[in-house]
Design a protein that fits this description.
By secondary structure, this protein is α/β, with parallel strands linked by helices. It has 18 helices and 27 strands.
C-alpha cells in the first residue's frame, strides 16, 4: 500500500529519511476508496480492526468487512440526502460504528465532525450554529442523546438524529437498522477534490471559544509518517492508541496512517480508564505497539507489571503533553522499552518526533520531520540560535502546495486564520528550544512562559521537577505579577492522598519541602515562590489545564 504513495518506503538513517521521503499525492484522493477499498480488492482477508469492550464482547473486521459495512453506511446516509459538503457530527465514543461512519462519509465527500460524548447542550448548540450541521450520529447513551435533544430547538440545520443504540429515542433514526436495510451503494461520480474539506475539528484551546480547524481530503496522507515512521508500524502490527474518537488523536492513531501501513487497529471500548485494564488488553491480545499521553504511563508505572505478560509490546510512543523524564526512566526500567515522543497539533500532523533511527533524549520531543520546515522564532522576530527559546513555527513554501497535513483554515474566521498564518509561516503558539544535535525541547504555550528577573521560565520544566516529589499528583505552573521581579512562579498542586492531611497541619513545612526539592532537581531560580494546594485543576473539555483560569483567579 505504501508503494502507492511513496517514492521510497525504507530508509537507512534519519538523514536518509529527511532527504528522500516524498509523498506522491493522487488527484482527488479519497481515503475510503484509495485505501480501505484498495485493501479490500488486493487483500480482502487482511485484519483491519479488532474491537472489544468492558463486557468482553469482541468484533474483528477485515478490510473486506469494512468495505461492505462502510458501503452500506454510505448508502444509508445517501438515502437521507447526505452528500458532498454536508456536515455530519459523530459522537460515537470508541464504538466500532465510528469506523463505518467516517469511512462512509469520506466516500460521499461529506464533512466529518468528530466530537466527544462530554459535550453539553451549550456545546452542541455552539457547534451546530458555527458549522451548519446537517446530521448527528451518536451512541445511544441517554446522557448523550438527552443533551442533543435539549439542544435541538436551537439547531435548525440539524435534519437527522441517528442513534447506534442500544437506546433509540423517539424522533431518532436507528443506525443499525438503516445500515442493514440500505440498498446497494452507488458511488458518487465526483465525491471530492483534494481541496474540499473532509474533516472539521472544534479544538478547545485554553482560552476563548473552540476554533473550527478544517482539513482537506489529502490530510490522511500526512499520517503516513505518524504510523510508519513514528509508531514504527508494518503489516502484522497490532496497534493501540488510547484516544476517544472525539479527539484529533484518534485519527492519528486509530485510522489513517495505521491502515496505510497495513497494520491492525486495536480498540478497547471503555467508559472509565483503569490502568490494569489496559495492561490486561496488552496481555490478552498480544498488542505490539502502544501510544498514549504521559498521564497514562504515569498510572501504568504504579501498577505491578509482573502480573501481566506484556512481552508482545515492542514499541511505545507518547504525545498529547510533554513527557516528564522521570516517567521515561521508570517505564524503561520496568519494560526495557524507550518511550518515543512526538509533537503536533489539531492543525497539523506529526511535526517533530523521536523517529526509530534516533536515540531518545528523555524530555525532548525529538527532531523535525521531512514534511514540515520547522524553526523557532524569537519574540523580536529573529530565528532562534541553538539553546535559545522561540515559538515553534512552520515555514511555508513560497510556491506549490502547503505542507501535507497542515490545516486549510479556521473555518469562517479569516481574522484568526490570518493571525496564525502570516509572513510565510504558521505560528503554533508553542515555545521550545533546540539543542546542538537538533532535538527540540518543549517550554510551554507562548502565553504561559513566565518572565522573572530577566529569566524566561517555561511551565513544563518546573512541573516536571514538581512531579518527581511523591506529594504531587498533578500541578500547574503560572506567573504571578511581582513589583520587583516582574513575575514570580506559582505552583497550583493537587496532592497525593497521603499528603492531604499533612498539608492541613504542616502546610508551611510541606511547602518548604517541595520548594527545596525543586531547587535540587532544576535550576534554583525556577522554584515556585508561591504554592497553593487544591482539590482539582481547572481543565478544558479535552483535559488541557486552563492556566488562564488559574491566573485570573483572585
Amino acid at each position: 500500500m505504501l508503494e502507492r504513495f511513496l517514492d521510497r518506503t525504507q530508509f537507512s538513517s534519519y538523514d536518509d529519511f529527511m532527504e528522500h521521503f516524498h509523498v506522491r499525492v493522487p488527484e482527488n484522493f479519497n481515503f475510503g476508496y484509495d485505501v480501505v477499498d484498495a485493501w479490500a480488492a488486493e487483500e480482502p482477508d487482511r485484519p483491519a480492526l479488532l474491537w472489544t469492550n468492558e463486557a468482553g464482547e469482541e468484533r474483528r473486521f477485515t478490510f473486506a468487512d469494512l468495505k461492505r459495512d462502510s458501503d452500506a453506511t454510505a448508502s444509508f446516509f445517501q438515502e437521507l440526502g447526505i452528500g458532498r459538503g454536508d456536515r455530519v457530527m459523530l459522537i460515537l465514543k470508541r464504538h466500532y460504528q465510528f469506523w463505518w461512519a467516517i469511512t462512509a462519509l469520506h466516500k460521499l465527500g461529506a464533512v466529518v465532525i468528530p466530537a466527544t460524548h462530554l459535550l453539553t447542550e451549550k456545546d452542541i448548540i455552539y457547534r451546530c450554529e458555527r458549522a451548519d450541521i446537517k446530521a448527528i450520529v451518536a451512541s445511544g447513551d441517554p446522557i448523550v442523546t438527552g443533551h442533543i435533544d435539549k439542544a435541538l430547538p436551537q439547531c435548525p440545520t440539524v435534519k437527522y438524529r441517528i442513534s447506534t443504540g442500544p437506546l433509540v429515542p423517539e424522533g431518532w433514526l436507528d443506525f443499525n437498522t438503516g445500515v442493514e436495510l440500505a440498498p446497494e451503494f452507488k458511488r458518487p461520480e465526483h465525491p471530492n477534490t483534494n481541496d474540499d474539506i473532509s474533516l472539521l475539528y472544534f479544538t478547545s484551546g485554553t482560552t476563548g471559544e473552540p476554533k473550527m480547524v478544517a482539513h482537506d481530503f489529502t490530510y490522511p496522507l500526512g499520517h503516513i509518517i505518524t504510523a510508519s515512521y513514528w509508531h514504527n508500524l508494518h503489516p502484522g502490527s497490532l496497534h493501540l492508541t488510547l484516544a476517544d474518537t472525539g479527539w484529533g488523536k484518534a485519527v492519528w492513531g486509530k485510522l489513517y496512517g495505521q491502515w496505510m501501513a497495513g497494520a491492525e487497529v486495536f480498540v478497547y471500548d471503555f467508559e472509565k480508564f483503569e490502568p490494569v485494564d489496559v495492561l490486561e488488553m496488552i496481555h490478552k491480545y498480544k498488542i505490539t505497539s502502544f501510544c498514549a499521553p504521559p498521564t497514562v504511563f504515569r498510572f501504568l508505572i504504579r501498577e505491578d507489571l509482573t502480573k501481566y505478560d506484556i512481552s508482545s509490546l515492542k514499541y511505545c510512543t507518547i504525545a498529547g503533553e510533554a513527557l516528564n523524564p522521570s516517567v521515561y526512566e521508570q517505564w524503561l526500567k520496568l519494560t526495557g522499552i524507550k518511550l518515543m515522543e512526538g509533537f503536533g497539533q489539531t492543525e497539523t500532523t506529526l511535526t517533530i518526533a523521536t523517529y526509530p533511527w534516533l536515540e531518545p533524549k528523555p524530555g525532548s520531543m525529538g527532531k523535525k520531520g521531512p514534511e514540515y520546515d520547522i524553526d523557532l522564532l524569537t519574540p523580536d522576530g529573529r530565528w532562534a540560535e541553538d539553546g535559545e527559546q522561540g515559538e515553534i513555527v512552520v515555514k511555508l513554501p513560497k510556491e506549490g502546495r502547503k505542507p501535507l497535513g497542515l490545516f486549510k483554515e479556521y473555518l469562517r474566521d479569516p481574522q484568526l486564520t490570518a493571525e496564525a498564518i502570516n509572513n510565510g509561516v504558521y505560528h503554533t503558539g508553542d515555545v521550545a528550544w533546540r539543542d546542538e544535535d537538533g532535538y527540540y525541547w518543549f517550554v510551554g504555550r507562548t502565553d504561559d512562559v513566565i518572565k522573572s528577573s530577566g529569566y524566561r521560565i517555561g511551565p513544563f520544566e518546573v512541573e516536571s521537577a514538581l512531579m518527581t516529589h511523591p506529594a504531587v499528583v498533578e500541578c500547574a505552573i503560572t506567573g504571578v505579577p511581582d513589583d520587583i521581579r516582574g513575575q514570580v512562579v506559582k505552583a497550583t498542586i493537587v496532592l497525593a492522598k497521603d499528603y492531604v492531611e499533612r498539608a492541613k497541619t504542616e502546610g508551611e513545612k510541606l511547602i518548604k519541602e517541595i520548594q527545596n526539592h525543586v531547587k535540587r532537581v532544576t535550576a534554583p531560580y525556577k522554584y515556585p515562590r508561591i504554592i497553593e494546594f487544591v482539590k482539582e485543576l481547572p481543565k478544558t473539555i479535552s483535559g488541557k489545564i486552563r492556566r488562564v483560569e488559574i491566573r485570573d483567579k483572585k
